[in-house]
Write a structure and sequence with these properties.
Elements: H1 8-13, H2 20-32, H3 54-64, H4 76-95
Helix pairs in contact: 2-3
Length: 96
């Protein structure tokens, strides 16, 4: 599910327990990446959830304008699990 507009505020809210470098990298990414058009796919994501780092997940939150169930208190493994569940739920909605 992709929500129109920028997900920068949502992604920034998930940076609370992360290094300032990650937030700065997110801001730099957002400055050079306009909000996505509905129905487009992120060119920076190859589908390998296990390879994601915190910044990659924040970029997906920005792109989809959706937290995907990720919470600021989550560690990286929990964030990957939330992203995986989000994409599985989309797959299930499409196959119905």
């Amino acid at each position: 599910m992709q929500i129109p507009g920028s997900g920068l505020a949502r992604a920034r809210a998930l940076c609370l327990n992360l290094d300032q470098d990650i937030r700065a990298a997110l801001d730099a990414f957002a400055a050079n990446q306009p909000p996505a058009e509905i129905g487009t796919l992120p060119s920076f994501f190859n589908g390998d959830i296990d390879a994601l780092e915190h910044l990659d997940i924040l970029k997906l939150v920005y792109f989809y304008n959706h937290t995907m169930g990720v919470e600021a208190r989550h560690d990286l493994a929990e964030r990957k699990g939330a992203v995986r569940e989000f994409f599985f739920s989309l797959r299930d909605m499409v196959s119905c």
